[in-house]
Amino acid sequence: MSNKLEKEKRHIDDLPARGICRVICFDHRHNVSLAEMDTTSIAKVIAAMQTEYRQLSAEQGIENVLIFENKGEIIGISNLHPHGQIYATDFVPRVLQTEYKNAKQYMDNKGSCLFCSIIEQEMREGQRMVCENNDFVAYVPYFARHAYEVHIIPRRHESVMTSLENSEVLSLAAIYQEVLVRYDNLFEMPFPNITLFHNAPCKKGYSVEPFHFHIEFCPPLRSANQMKYMAGFETGGGNIVNPVYPEEAAQSLRSLSPVHYLQR
């Protein structure tokens, strides 16, 4: 193979990834978490996320904006100050691609939203519900990959968080805090977590309509002193084995006080 062909092949296989990375500090205090902040302060954090999403999704070449928080030393964070991160990339990550593809296929075939149908099912069955308010529901999905995975999703079909109204931002702050407080109360400890804000991709040519904005909490613990690892069958086979039934996880979280254990 000539040097020219080698360079062309390498160019096709190894495309560079470009984007913008930002950090959102949740509070000026170093020793608090979102679970310990009031809902007004959390609403301001969500509003800041909306502003960043609006700006970054409008940037030339940006196809997806992922907002997330890595919380807890066992997650591997190096800076304990309460903060979140934003990765705006010139590609749509695989997980978001799959979510969007399945949502679009469902809407094309059924004429309705996949996520809305999941909400209806969860509310109808009730066993996996954790908490709810007028605008949002929080539940352990029947397909949970983590022992205490929880999703927060708006009742109203909204594809991106920037379409949330001011009243909905306050509602989101309230249920967001409640889920985090219940997590901390579960083992009476600052609960390590990976929190993901899933918005519709902002790639040109994508219709945002099939997607439904939601938040996913992916905690690594299965007990106070035991982590849930992706072990041999999961890593090697791609099959998730959850050690806790979603219904049992939801019942455990649902039965906890919405008042933080440090404030009782």
Description of the molecule:
The chain is of the alpha+beta class and 264 residues long. It has a single domain, classed as HIT family, subunit A (2-Layer Sandwich), CATH 3.30.428.10. The chain has 7 helices and 10 strands. Strands 1-3-2-7-8-6-5-4 form an 8-stranded antiparallel beta sheet, with helices on both faces. The protein has a two-stranded antiparallel ribbon with strand order 9-10. A hairpin with a 2-residue loop joins strand 9 and strand 10. The radius of gyration is 19 Å and the shape is globular. The N and C termini lie far apart (71 Å).
Largest sheet: 8 strands, antiparallel
CATH architect. name: 2-Layer Sandwich
Q: Give the tally of β-strands.
A: 10
Radius of gyration: 19 Å
CATH fold category name: HIT family, subunit A
Q: How large a portion of the residues is in β-strands, by DSSP E?
A: 15-25%
Number of helices: 7
- What's the N-to-C terminus distance? 71 Å
> What's the helix-strand series?
HEHEEHHEEEHEEEEHH
pLDDT below 50 for ≥5 consecutive residues: which ranges?
Answer: none
**Count of spatially separate domains:** 1
List its salient traits:
single chain, 264 residues, alpha+beta, HIT family, subunit A, two-stranded antiparallel sheet, 10 strands, 19% strand
